[in-house]
């Protein structure tokens, strides 16, 4: 009996929704379009966020770059506009005096991206970025060692003339299938043995600038290219329980003290705080996500209002039928439940079609990105399951709200008055 009742109820709902198919389609389209806009806005926001954060690469975001600049104030007999250079002793001082630091990596650079031809192997030459590094740098800027190994402290202590080269250097100086490990390249007239090859482990790792890089031991760099103990700049990473933004002023104060710089001179030391930038980016996209939900909800609300209006019309058209059912003993909750169920089914069906359509569009965008290569500031538009569940909850609540007013209207009229309406 119960199954027959359920079948009758479903048949009745289906008949009500198909009585005017065009009207039902237009009503459902409002919900379909609203949920589509909501999901696509969130997916595009996520794609933009992925693209922007990809510019950080895999470099530890709780880090900062720091370099020396001209002083902007005279201090203790030193003139304004004085140049100064970091030293290796500064690195040791920072490690010992700032307990919140995890890594302090000194860096020197020779040449520049698309600079002059500075690397030779046989008859082949190339313009590559040459960096002097310490071994811990690989923990700050992760990379995949495809062959051999990265630098170690034995290389540093022995001033070994060895190097680790990127895939772009391999492609530029070696023939396909040629042995790379153990071979030699000449950097500004100095021979270096290749002990490893790498590629960046993040999605942007095949960029030409990343791939066209040569790493050599920092001490060897200073000796071979007459840099001594001078440091071009530093990559500084804080421990997990410390935010680099909170302790960077302590780092600056130590450097200023060691180089006789006015403590109030904020221009003498340049820096790029990745943690601060990353926090700003996350804050921006949190706001954009909220805006996406807000705009999508407004569009969806217009569809819900449409469903509520159409259900009011349906209730009015079925006033006499409702009166007959009430006269035969149907309770107000039974009438109200049927109206709510019709509204809920129409909302959920049109919403699920909208979610499916959004998923297809997102798949198409990712397919085009895979086919045509990465786009600046945009990557992998997608939504997670939380968004889908949120959308489903919104649909259920919206469907109930859309049917609530028509359902109350259907139960307010007395059966005798309903039967009199022609």
Automatic annotation (TrEMBL):
Main location (coarse class): membrane
Membrane topology field: Multi-pass membrane protein
Residue stretches making up the ABC3 transporter permease C-terminal domain: 294-415
Localization per Swiss-Prot or TrEMBL: Cell membrane
Keywords: Cell membrane, Membrane, Transmembrane, Transmembrane helix
Location of the MacB-like periplasmic core domain: 24-251
Transmembrane portions of the chain: 25-44, 290-315, 344-365, 385-405
Superkingdom, taxonomy of origin: Bacteria
Family according to the record: Belongs to the ABC-4 integral membrane protein family.
Listed name of the protein: ABC transporter permease
UniProt source species: Gilvirhabdus luticola
């Amino acid at each position: 009996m119960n199954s027959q009742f359920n079948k009758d109820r479903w048949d009745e709902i289906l008949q009500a929704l198909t009585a005017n198919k065009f009207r039902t389609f237009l009503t459902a389209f409002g919900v379909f379009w609203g949920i589509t806009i909501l999901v696509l806005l969130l997916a595009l926001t996520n794609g933009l966020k992925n693209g922007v954060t990809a510019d950080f690469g895999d470099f530890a975001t709780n880090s900062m770059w720091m370099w020396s600049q001209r002083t902007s104030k005279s201090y203790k007999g030193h003139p304004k506009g004085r140049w100064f250079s970091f030293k290796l002793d500064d690195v040791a001082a920072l490690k010992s005096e700032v307990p919140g630091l995890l890594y302090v990596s000194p860096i020197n650079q020779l040449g520049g991206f698309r600079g002059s031809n500075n690397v030779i192997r046989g008859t082949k030459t190339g313009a590559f970025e040459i960096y002097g590094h310490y071994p811990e740098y690989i923990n700050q800027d992760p990379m995949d060692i495809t062959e051999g190994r990265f630098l170690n402290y034995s290389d540093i202590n022995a001033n070994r003339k060895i190097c680790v080269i990127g895939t772009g250097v391999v492609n530029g100086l070696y023939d396909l299938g040629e042995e790379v490990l153990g071979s030699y390249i000449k950097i500004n007239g100095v021979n270096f043995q290749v002990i490893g090859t790498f590629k960046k482990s993040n999605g942007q790792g095949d960029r030409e600038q990343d791939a066209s890089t040569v790493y050599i031991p920092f001490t060897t760099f200073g000796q071979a290219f007459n840099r001594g103990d001078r440091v071009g700049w530093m990559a500084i990473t804080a421990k997990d329980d410390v935010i680099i933004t909170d302790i960077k002023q302590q780092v600056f104060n130590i450097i200023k003290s060691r180089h006789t710089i006015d403590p109030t001179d904020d221009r003498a030391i340049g820096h790029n705080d990745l943690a601060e930038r990353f926090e700003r980016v996350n804050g921006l996209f949190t706001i954009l996500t909220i805006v996406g939900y807000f705009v999508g909800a407004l569009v969806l609300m217009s569809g819900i209002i449409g469903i509520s209006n159409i259900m009011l019309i349906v209730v009015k058209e079925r006033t006499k039928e409702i009166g007959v059912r009430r006269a035969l003993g149907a309770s107000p909750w039974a009438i109200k439940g049927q109206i709510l169920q019709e509204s809920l089914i129409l909302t959920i069906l049109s919403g699920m079609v909208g979610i499916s359509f959004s998923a297809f569009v997102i798949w198409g965008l990712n397919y085009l990105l895979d086919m045509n290569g990465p786009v600046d500031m945009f990557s992998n538009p997608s939504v997670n399951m939380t968004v889908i569940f949120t959308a489903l909850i919104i649909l259920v609540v919206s469907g109930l709200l859309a049917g609530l007013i028509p359902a109350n209207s259907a139960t307010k009229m007395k059966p005798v008055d309903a039967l009199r309406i022609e």
